[in-house]
Amino acid sequence: MDKKSGSSFEYRKDDVNSSFGILAIRLAVGVPLAIVVAFIGNIFNGIMVPSPAAGDDFAFIFRMMVLGVSASTGGMVAWFNAFESKFGGVGLWAFGGFGGLIGGIIAYFVGGHFIDHPDLYILNQQLTQTVIFGAAIGSNVFAVAFSLYGSKRIS
């Protein structure tokens, strides 16, 4: 701890958070945890919300949102100390949740072209696994972008 700064830490003051090694470690830890928590979120979503009829766009977007927020929550274990302020942590989580939503939707549309008999509402389907993986990747990529933007804005 620096005597001048009091309660702030040195690793947050320099370019450590934007270094390639730290970001790679955060991704290596964040993506698997995001996948696991997104899978758990998908299970809870399947329990709470019954499978909708085909073409129910609201249920589809809600399921993607649950996967995105779950992936963001799981990935936050790797990103919890990226910012000193509570606003930075909440902003990182919200931005990561949006990234998980976008990643899940992209994975759904890309995976739907390559997978036979796509069904998002059965846990064992390949498309569901693809969407969970896409949400985890999207959440962590958006967290990297937010972290890089925050470290460049501070310094």
TrEMBL record:
Q: Name the source organism.
A: Candidatus Lucifugimonas marina
Keywords (A to Z) from UniProt:
Membrane, Transmembrane, Transmembrane helix
Indicate the transmembrane segments per the record: 20-40, 60-80, 92-111, 131-149
Q: What is this protein called?
A: Uncharacterized protein
